[in-house]
Amino acid sequence: MAEALVRFEGVKKAYGPAGGGYAVRQLDLEVEKGELLTLLGPSGSGKTTTLMMLAGFELPTEGRILLEGRDIARLPPHRRGIGVVFQSYALFPHMSVAENVAFPLEVRGVPRAEREARVKRALAMVRLESFGERRPAQLSGGQQQRIALARAMVFEPPIVLLDEPLGALDKALREEMQYEIRALHQRLGLTMMYVTHDQAEALTLSDRIAVFEGGLIRQLAAPRRIYEEPANAFVAGFVGENNRLPGVIVEEHDGLARVALDCGPDVWARLVDVQGEGNRCVVAVRPERVAVAPVAAEALDEWALPATLKEAIFQGDHVRLRLGFGDGGEILVKRAIGGGQLPEPGGPAALAWEAEHAHAFAA
Q1: How does pLDDT run across 128-166, given as a tens digit for each residue?
Q2: Which of 103, 176, 237, 360 gives a 20 to 30 Å CA spacing to 286?
Q3: pTM, whole model, 2 decimals?
Q4: Residue (of 172, 132, 181) closest to 153 by Cα position
């Protein structure tokens, strides 16, 4: 593994009076050179505090923050040499686009000729080289965000931090900018740390995702692994949709468990962070992993569950099916458009999924 560009070692951040609690409870994290690492979590989970401690706008209560092997935990922001992009863009309205991008170079005493050359390159990176004379108010939200990115990159920092930079954009523009940032990262080999609470955004952008809850990282892994192999019930519930079916483990075999669901049926699932017959657990299975057929379960194999379609909602590229099964149980299924015949409302249906695609977590 390459030497880490950034390393958090035993970092904690207390808030309020003594003993009042921690925004970050225990952080040991490495950011590799050239990667895009996303900090993902709900409000108050510690992700933004982590970013702000690296940027220098918050000081850690304990621990060290190393940048290229140098402890920067007590350095002021302007001496860290880190690029930061905020949700509000923070562009100077009285300056032109070129002047905004040149500002970090000017305060660093870069000669004028070199400033102009770097500004030109930075604007070309974000495909706005002809906008240098405009003012920020003359730009769209997406263009302003690109200028903020150019300004953060123009002095060639070792890492660029992005604090929910797309939060103010509409859905279509937000999705477009996600691909812009991803392409820019890959083309230039930039190291980026990105904060968001948007799961889809994190999955789209990231080389790795750190999922935060309660000031702790609950899982750190590549996007596909976070989605397909969540480490605990919190990650499974926070990243993407999941059906959560409570029950009791009645049998274990080769890493799998047969679980008696509270609503009646027995199902198989992969053991994750719970084991032992008689222990309560929650079986999580994603809606797209559940197969549904418009036939009575008896017509299929022994593990098919009898169900009844309660509701079908058309959502463009897929249909969301809400089905009842067992004694008061309910499950959500996503079926791609053109994915076969659907059950009739109120009519019989059969449910099934592969045990490898279901996960048993501690309740």
Answers
A1: 989 999 999 999 888 898 899 899 999 989 999 999 988
A2: 176
A3: 0.90
A4: 181
